[in-house]
Amino acid sequence: MAEKQGGIVKKGHEEGLKLATSLLQEFELSSGLLPLADVIEVGYVKNTAYMWIVQKKKVEHEFKKITKLVSYDTEITGYVEKKRIKKLKGVKAKEFMLWPPVSEITVDDQPTGKIHFKSLAGITKTFPVEAFAAGE
Fold it and tell me: H-helix or E-strand containing 22?
C-alpha cells in the first residue's frame, strides 16, 4: 500500500504494542484508547502521520467507567496528530443496537479532561478522558 511507504514497522505483539503505546503517548492520547490483542503489525509514517494496526482477530472492549462497548477490527488505520486521530477506520462504538463507525477522536486541552468521538454520521459523543486510561 502506498500509504505505508517509508513507515516504521514493528511486527509481533510485544514490539507492535510498544510502538502503538509510544504513539499514543507522543500525541497526548489516552494510553487505554486502543486495547489490542494478538498484534501482528503496527506501523507509522512520520511524513504523512498515517498509522496502522493489524491484529489477529477483532477485539470488543467495554470501557467500564462509561459502560461503552467498542469494537476494534483486525485492521485499524488513521492519521494521528497531537490530541487527535482523524480518518479513523476499523473502530466502532455500540449505540443502542447499532455499531456506527468512529471516524475521529479528539482530546481537549486541560482542564476540561474530555475526549470526543465523532462518527461518519456527524454524531459526536463526549466522555471523561480518564475512562480511557490503560486498564480501564
Answer: helix 13-26
